[in-house]
Design a protein that fits this description.
Layout lengths: L6 H11 L4 H8 L3 H8 L8 H11 L3 H20 L32 E2 L5 E4 L2 E2 L5 H12 L7 H8 L7 H17 L7 E4 L2 E4 L7 H17 L3 H12 L13 H27 L3 H14 L4 H13 L3 H19 L5 H12 L23 E5 L2 E5 L12 H13 L6 E6 L6 H11 L8 E5 L12 H11 L11 H12 L5 E7 L2 H4 L10 E6 L9 E5 L5 H12 L1 H4 L3 H10 L4 H12 L6 H9 L1 H7 L1 E2 L2 E2 H10 L3 H9 L10 H8 L3 H13 L4 E4 L2 E3 L2 H14 L2 H23 L25 H24 L3 H10 L1 H6 L6 H15 L2 H17 L3 H18 L2 H17 L3 H17 L3 H17 L3 H15 L5 H17 L3 H17 L3 H17 L3 H17 L3 H17 L3 H17 L3 H18 L2 H14 L7 H9 L26
Parallel strand pairs: 8-11, 8-12, 9-10, 10-11
Antiparallel strand pairs: 1-2, 2-3, 4-5, 6-7, 13-14, 15-16
Helix pairs in contact: 1-3, 2-3, 2-4, 4-5, 6-8, 9-10, 10-11, 11-13, 12-13, 13-14, 13-15, 14-15, 16-17, 18-19, 21-23, 21-24, 23-25, 27-31, 28-30, 28-31, 29-30, 29-32, 32-33, 32-34, 33-34, 33-36, 34-36, 34-37, 36-37, 37-38, 37-39, 38-39, 39-40, 39-41, 40-41, 41-42, 41-43, 42-43, 43-44, 43-45, ...
Family: Belongs to the AfsR/DnrI/RedD regulatory family.
GO molecular function: ADP binding; DNA binding
Pfam families: BTAD, HTH_31, TPR_12, Trans_reg_C
């Protein structure tokens, strides 16, 4: 026997079984205790889907219990929407016998489509569906029908059918598709599921699927209503509603299907509400009162239904009952959500209070959804004339905006008394435009004392078309006291009368929620003494003589104050950090802050941390920031409704962008548009305040607008188009990384990327401009690589990091570099690309080496070299030998480094790889210099320059020139060294080569110190230190600190010198730089020597000798002290002003 228990009875039984009070359950589910009580006692027959899920979660329901609870809740919600609507299913044809196997199973009645999901999922004639064995078949069919005509990827189907997919998910889908194919094969029409490259596809004409037919009929009804064919519109809507047989997708569970069902059932309720509205327009007020009363009882939080009931009661002459219904709703919203009624309720309430008939929904005179204000009307008399104030009330919770108010007020008050002032406020939905405009209007009431007029133009209102200019003028004229029979029938006449009425008056006109300039222009009075305030989500740049103000989100302090004002100071006082995170998660958008604060205020058991958890998830944030008719996502979607098709598509696709900002080139790649067209579309979105622009040509989303874009993407753009757009975007970032980095790339990283699409990109005139562009796009390129890694785009996941290796190297491999190359190694392995794996290992090894992890770097270089040898890729191998040699050099193993460099140098020359030969010759010169063989060093550096002439990149050429300068300095030729250093500094600055510039400055500091030019030396040393720290060049930073320490030591400031040497030593130890650590300890020994502590100085010199790598010539400085007849004798170049051996070593890669 079927379970006949109501949802209230089930909830009570499960609650008692869980040993929870109503209050405890409400707290766990994040709903009010009143909601739990109302459901259990039957006052709310059908809870919303989100509420039912929250209750199920709070009760800990799983398996069959959870499925049954949600199914009963869904059915109850459906029944409550159907009750007293006057719509019932047509009776099914009686079945006298089993259908024969060869009988036609599809209805010949086109009004009853064979594929049905508006109720239980069925295929076949009404009452005679074909058998669909198993829940999974029905889920699969539902997924295919909801995406009819579009292929669904296998991975997408897995997400649709399982919340936690089993390992056998792929096979189970294959089995389910085969089974469903067999079921459909028995039907006439040969409906079949085809397998394409994009996934599974079910081709069904839209008129054979009930949900498609329903939407077509609803759209037809809306068109008929716009043509003022109201009876026909009602008939079309009634036919659409008869397609429903119960809650959509009834009996099917699972997160994706349940969300789809919620959306479909919401469309059904909206259609029911439109039906009631149409009946009211046809004068059937009395006949719908009963149905609307039942609807409001079952959906107490739906303000649209309550507004319709109030209107029906008012039209039926039952004003007292209408006011009671309004007050009940106002109290309910205040108790449950801490909010005021929305504009629909305020409008009809105002009409009831004024005892004037509500003739059309366009008779709105209320604030927009983001206003948070309640309208009021006052009349006073001055000199026999009636002066009217139609301004809405200004909310008591208005916070901040003092700067904007002062600016707008100053504009109005400083203008000539003979000037018409027009202030145009624009901003995204929910940012508080109306609230600011209303507050401003109230503050200026005394200056504009001849009347204050207000009209909501409904440019962006839910379920409403914008008012036409003649409709808006009708409202304004009637507010001005014009009898209805005296209102001219045409726009020109109304506009002329409006201008005449305000002539000579100091009036204030607030035109709220405008859709565009064309709607506003006829409403501007001709009076030169008046103030017009216009608000719109669009920038009204074409509005003549207007003073524009684009309203941004609240500053942090104002946003925090708004939250505290609503949530209460007592609970927020000790949670400043949590409040700060909450307002940032709300994007500092006033509407979002109000909803979050009200929810927090009404849940006294919650901490700020609980609120933060609700807001951190993008999916839960969208649901959480909804209360009654106040819904942040719904408010933002209203802007989307007014976009062009190209703008809608771009708005959705932009949510695929993984970075923080983007330009027209990236948008063009996403949308597959020419760049000029993409820029035009982006500017349109910017003008509609759906995009921000922090810098010229750079656009970004507000966080909540991005959430809205992602939700619309899932609903509006199919899997195939999303996949194609993602591929183009990843190709774009691979393209720019490869094209801009390749001119300065070395070895294996100088490759041509595999790019599938032909895309436009910004042109770089020179390497310096390319570097600037790379730094601008750095975060987007890395975000693209990380997205590719996380979502299985293997080719992009290894190519992008390898293409941007020169950029990463120039930034000294920041903290994200290791993760990028680690992902590249995995991706290249998954793609079966040996050279790609070898390149990625090389990048990963370089990161480890620069971080001081020489052991790991050596192992990774050796693995990369083994792959290159196995594949016969000699050019990769010689570059990797250079990297391995530098690692050995850093580790202090000079003989091993020299051997590896020599092996690579021979191989590079045999391969005629002149660029890598230049690199290796330079590094052999560094080894020779460190060993004190200056003639050999100079020979290698000269060979490096010869090999590299016309083949090396400019940075390698600069490093070789720097090393020549160092040899000049060590050979006691400061003039030649200075010339080299100054030339290298100039060349480095020209290409923005930070390493070269910092090294040149260190060299100049040491030379100037040796010549006694201490002021110049100090300036050069400090500049070098600043660059090294900004770019995380740790070895150069140590060298700069040592050079500065030597300068202070030479000027007698031993304490400052010791501090600098100690800093250098700590840094060198942390990053495994033994030569720098030894130089720092040697410097400290000289400080002790200068202070007269000879025993401590000797210990420090001994430690320095121990730290220097074996064979390094620099160690002789300390040895001279230790072998001297008397320690007091100056035995090394650090003891005197001349310090020629203070120069660092510069290897190249």
């Amino acid at each position: 026997m079927d379970d006949q228990r109501t949802i209230g009875q089930l909830l009570r039984e499960f609650r008692i079984s869980a040993r929870l009070t109503q209050e405890a359950l409400a707290e766990r589910a994040a709903v009010s205790a009143r909601t739990v009580r109302d459901i259990e006692r039957g006052a709310v027959i059908g809870p919303r889907h989100s509420t039912a899920r929250s209750l199920a979660d709070a009760l800990g329901l799983t398996g069959a219990d959870r499925d049954h609870f949600l199914a009963v809740a869904s059915a109850a919600s459906w029944e409550s929407s159907q009750a007293q609507d006057g719509y019932v299913d047509p009776p099914a044809a009686p079945m006298s016998e089993e259908w024969p196997a060869d009988a036609a199973v599809f209805s010949a009645d086109p009004a009853v489509p064979p594929f049905r999901i508006l109720g239980p999922v069925e295929v076949g004639a009404p009452g005679r569906p074909i058998s669909l064995p198993g829940t999974r078949q029905r889920k699969l069919l539902a997924a295919l029908l909801l995406n009819a005509g579009t292929a669904i990827q296998h991975e997408r189907l897995v997400d649709m059918l399982w919340e936690e997919p089993p390992r056998s998910a792929r096979q189970q889908i294959h089995n389910a598709v085969a089974s469903l194919r067999r079921s459909l094969a028995a039907t006439p029409g040969s409906w079949n599921i085809t397998t394409t490259e994009a996934g599974y596809l079910l081709q069904v004409p839209p008129d054979l699927v009930d949900v498609s037919l329903f939407r077509t009929m609803v759209a037809e009804s809306e068109q008929l209503e716009r043509l003022e064919r109201v009876p026909a519109a009602l008939e079309s809507l009634e036919r659409a509603l008869k397609l429903w047989r119960g809650p959509a997708l009834a009996g099917l569970t699972g997160e994706w299907l349940e969300e789809a069902a919620v959306q479909l059932n919401e469309q059904h309720i909206a259609a029911v509400e439109r039906t009631m509205a149409l009946r009211l327009r046809l004068g059937q007020a009395s006949s719908v009162v009963s149905a609307l009363t039942g609807l409001v009882a079952r959906h107490p939080y739906r303000e649209t239904q309550r507004a319709l009931l109030i209107e029906a009661l008012h039209r039926s002459g039952r004003q007292a009952e209408a006011l009671t219904v309004y007050e009940d709703g106002r109290q309910l919203l205040a108790d449950e959500f801490g909010i005021d009624p929305g504009p629909a309720l305020r409008r009809v309430h105002l009409q009831v209070l004024r005892s004037s008939p509500v003739t059309d929904p366009d008779d709105a005179g209320a604030a927009a959804p983001d206003a948070g204000v309640t309208a009021h009307v006052t009349e006073t008399r001055s000199g026999g004339a009636v002066l009217r104030n139609f301004l809405p009330h200004s909310t008591k919770e208005f916070t901040g905006r003092r700067t904007e108010l002062d600016r707008l007020s100053d504009t109005a008050l400083s203008s000539s008394s003979q000037a018409l002032v027009i202030s145009a406020l624009d901003g995204m939905g929910g940012v508080g435009k109306t609230a600011l405009a209303v507050r401003l209007a109230h503050e200026l009431t005394e200056k504009y004392s001849d009347g204050q007029y207000f009209v909501d133009l409904h440019g962006f209102s839910p379920g409403r078309d914008p008012l036409t200019p003649d409709q808006a003028l009708d409202h304004l004229l009637r507010q001005a006291g014009t009898a209805i029979e005296k209102v001219p029938p045409d726009l020109a006449g109304r506009s002329a009368l409006w201008r005449g009425l305000l002539a000579g008056r100091r009036a204030l006109v607030l035109l709220d929620n405008a859709v565009d300039v064309a709607q506003v222009r006829p409403l501007i009075p001709g009076a030169t003494h008046s103030l017009v305030i216009v608000t719109s989500r669009r920038r009204l740049a074409a509005l003549e003589d207007a003073v524009p103000l684009s309203l941004n989100v609240l500053p942090p302090d104002d946003a925090e104050q708004l939250f505290i004002q609503i949530a209460g100071e007592e609970r927020t006082r000790a949670a400043a950090a949590g409040v700060a995170e909450v307002i940032e998660l709300c994007g500092r958008l006033p509407l979002a802050i109000r909803i979050a604060a009200a929810r927090f205020r009404d849940r006294p058991s919650w901490s700020i941390d609980d609120l933060v958890k609700q807001l951190r998830s993008q999916r839960s944030r969208a649901q959480f920031l909804s209360a009654g008719d106040r819904d942040v996502m719904a408010v933002l979607r209203l802007s989307y409704r007014h976009l062009t098709p190209a703008q809608k598509r771009m708005f959705c696709l932009l949510s695929l962008h993984p970075g923080e900002d983007f330009d027209a080139y990236a948008a063009a790649a996403l949308a597959d548009l020419p760049v000029a067209r993409a820029e035009q579309v982006l500017e349109g979105l910017f003008d509609d305040n759906l995009l921000l622009q922090q810098a010229a040509g750079r656009y970004q989303f507000h966080d909540l607008v991005r959430d809205c874009s992602r939700l619309l993407l899932a609903a509006e753009i199919d899997d195939r188009e999303r996949t194609a757009a993602t591929g183009r975007l990843l190709d774009y970032y691979l393209l720019i990384a490869n094209e801009w980095c390749r001119p300065v790339a070395k070895g294996p990283f100088r490759f041509h990327a595999e790019i599938q699409h032909t895309l436009s990109r910004p042109e770089a005139e020179n390497p310096a401009e390319a570097t600037q562009l790379l730094h601008t796009e750095y975060h987007n390129i890395t975000a693209a690589a990380e997205y590719a890694r996380e979502h299985g785009w293997h080719s992009h996941a290894w190519q992008i990091p390898c293409a941007m290796q020169p950029l990463l190297a120039g930034m000294n491999y920041g903290e994200r570099a290791y993760v990028l190359f680690e992902g590249a190694v995995s991706a290249a392995t998954a793609a079966g690309h040996a050279d790609g794996r070898s390149m990625a290992l090389t990048g990963m090894a370089s990161v480890c080496r620069e971080a001081g992890d020489n052991d790991q770097a050596r192992a990774l270089f050796e693995e990369a070299i083994a792959i290159s040898r196995a594949t016969g890729n000699g050019r990769h191998e010689v570059f990797q030998l250079a990297g391995l040699g530098i690692t050995l050099l850093n580790d202090g193993d000079l003989p091993a480094a020299e051997k590896v460099f020599a092996t690579g140098y021979r191989a590079a020359r045999e391969l005629h790889d002149r660029a890598t030969a230049a690199l290796l010759a330079n590094n052999l010169g560094v080894v020779a210099k460190d060993l004190g063989n200056y003639a050999d060093a100079l020979r290698y550096f000269t060979e490096s320059a010869e090999h590299g002439n016309g083949f090396s990149t400019e940075d390698i050429a600069i490093l070789t020139a720097l090393n020549i300068g160092i040899v000049h300095q060590l050979r006691d030729n400061p003039e030649a060294a200075t010339r080299q250093y100054e030339e290298c500094r100039r060349r480095s600055r020209a290409i923005k080569f930070d390493v070269g510039e910092a090294v040149a400055l260190v060299g100049l500091a040491t030379v100037n110190r040796s010549l006694g030019n201490f002021a110049a030396a100090l300036e050069d040393g400090r500049d070098a230190l600043a660059i090294a720290r900004r770019t995380a060049l740790r070895e150069v930073e140590c060298d700069a600190l040592n050079a500065l320490g030597d300068i202070f030591l030479s000027t007698g400031e031993a304490s400052s010198a010791e501090t600098l040497f100690a800093q250098s030593e700590q840094l060198a130890v942390r990053h495994n730089l033994p030569r720098n650590a030894a130089r720092s300890r040697e410097g400290i020994a000289h400080v002790r020597f200068a202070e007269g502590d000879l025993a401590a100085a000797r210990r420090d010199w001994e430690e320095a000798v121990r730290l220097f790598p074996a064979g390094v010539a620099d160690a002789e400085n300390s040895r001279r002290h230790l072998t001297s007849d008397t320690v007091l004798q100056p035995r090394c170049q650090r003891c005197v002003v001349v310090a020629r051996t203070a120069a660092p070593s510069f290897r190249s890669e």
